[in-house]
Amino acid sequence: MEKNYWSRLGAQRRVSRRSVIRGAGVAAAGITGAALIGCGGSDEEEATSSTAAQATATLAQQRETQAAQATSTQTSVAAVATTAANVDPYPGVKRGGTIVGSWVQDPPTIDPYGNLSYLSKYPSLFSVSRLFRNGTEEGTSPYNLGPVPDLAESAETEDAVTWIVKLKQGVKFHNKAPVNEREVTSADVLSSWDKLIADDSPNKDTVPNIDSAEAIDDHTIKFVCGAPSATFIDTLADPNALHVQPVEAHNGGFDPAKEIIGSGPWIFEKYEPSVDFMFSRNPNWHGSLAPMGSEYAAPFADAFHWISVPEYQNRLAQLKAGNLHYLNSVNANDVIPTKEEMPGIQWYGARPALMSFLYFSNNELDTNPIWQDLRFRRFTSMAQDRDAITELGYEVEAMEKAGVGSRADLLRWNNLIPAGFEKWWLNPTDPKMGAAGEDFKYNPAEAAKLLSATGYDGSSIKFQYYPYGGTGGTFNKIGEAIQAYLTASGLTSEIEHQDYSSQYITQTFTGNFSGIAWGYETPFPEVGGYFPRMFGDNERNHGRIKDMKIRELDALQAAEADYEQRREYIHEIQKINAENMYYVPGQAGAGVGWTGADSSLRGYRVWKSYGMGTENSPWLWLDA
Q: What is the rounded distance in angstroms from the CA atom of residue 194 to the CA atom of residue 188?
């Protein structure tokens, strides 16, 4: 391996051997675009995918001139040094007001270390910093960007095994007892690290290749990896992993299940289950271009009000009524009608790196289960018409007619790596897939033959999942369609909707179930996160799959600095999974997802995973 191991990673950007990341972050090459239609974006920003380019070109005339002028001057946090205290680095931005958003379901706990659920990560990330965060820019897919510093000032390495991370000095925790604006130090990082990797931690497998961490001084930490790691910084930027809480959260100073204290952009004020979260602006946030405490520093709003609206139709109605400033995951069939009803609405479209999949039980609950037969798993894939399912979930034809991209751009199939993670995704129709590519094609006659060949006796098999976002959403429509396709090809199955916190995430998702399950995989910000989760020795290996070739390839890709070679390893893993259909990729998450925003909202950025609180909300402002 080259000593300058980072030099050919991503976009072939040259970075010195010692100073891998300092101040400006590391750019990652990617080709998944974020399309902006409606208004609120900069005409100077260029989308990087053909979907985004066509959407921007076709609907550019609908953008509001004032919004474009206001946002076109906004500058990336990751690329520019902090400005002087008396200089406004965000000209045109209006300060003040309260941003109102919505959430769907109560978290099992507000302590991010208390549960593996993504619901526990979301609220923490409004208030709690990480060492690194994922970069975001207006009009750009976050999958075209890399990690940027959060609490960290720099990360340096000689060999990609030992990493020295230096903290920014003078960063303060929130002005709340018992921390009372004291400085963030290495002790807080290590206390949080110990909480993350503890034997009883449900989140310990989020940092599988980092063996140890120790303080060199109050602002320097040494991390040691088990093997050379090309993904060390990405791992620490993962919103699932290291949330830097104060030492007091772990030694009895306060209860992190009842109080959120950190150094992030928002100060936690209250949480009332099934009602709302309330956050106020942190005037001393370190993540702004303007200095901490400056009147020009982000966050731009005074407060962020996050209200509970469990049902999708109610959320859409609240957006239309002007009671929400934005709504994520708008169903595709609602985009055009809502646009007609709300002429000033802004639409942000992007294909998420979100993989859905069928998986099968593989435990002591089952005796001679039919799904251990490869023919059965191939049946479940070939029985699905992926094009028709995508049309059902994402209104491809209507979007094409509206000028939002071509069918080829809008209609893509997930593999084990989702289509939104395009630089690592192996298209199931690519010749590289070989014979395994045939199993993605809709072939009901062959599917029925495969099912019959297994000796299936017609008995009912449970088809279980958690209905994300309430009934009627894209995920649930697609799940129902898959079950209908399986039935049409000869399978008798029964849908079981499961409670997320008490059953799905704690039982089914960990492999403790019988039958067939349908679910989303965590949208990992770094592609290497998928393989330990789905094939490793951990409790969230959903299908309890042990494939030694995949494990060998996983170890190789995690240490490989050459981008092209690493991609070959990752392509090979996708091919092996498809040959065995351990996990059968689904189409939920494969289409372009939509966020609708009120005409007054500015500064919207698409973000990865659960990092909205840090990576999107500080930059939101109200032009009203």
A: 10
Least confident among 97-101, 217-221, 353-357, 547-551: 353-357
Residues 6+ apart with CB under 8 A from 371: 360, 361, 377, 515, 516
Q: pLDDT tens across 367-378, in order?
A: 668 989 999 999
Neighbours of 243 (CB within 10 A): 26
Domains in the chain, CATH or no CATH each: 5-84+92-350+593-622 (3.40.190.10), 356-586 (3.10.105.10)
Run of H or E including 539: none
**Integer Cα distance of 176 and 256 in angstroms:** 13
Q: What are the tokens at 531?
A: 């393989």
How do beta strands 493-497 and 461-465 pair?
A: parallel
List Cα–Cα distances, 82 to 61, 90, 170, 311, in angstroms: 34, 12, 14, 42
Q: What is the pLDDT of residues 50-62, one digit of tens each?
A: 222 222 222 222 2
For 582-589, what is the mean pLDDT? 96
Other CB atoms within a 10 A radius of the CB of residue 194 amount to: 12
Percent of the chain at pLDDT exceeding 70: 86
Measured between alpha carbons, how far is residue 559 from residues 197, 353, 466, 554 in Å? 21, 22, 35, 9
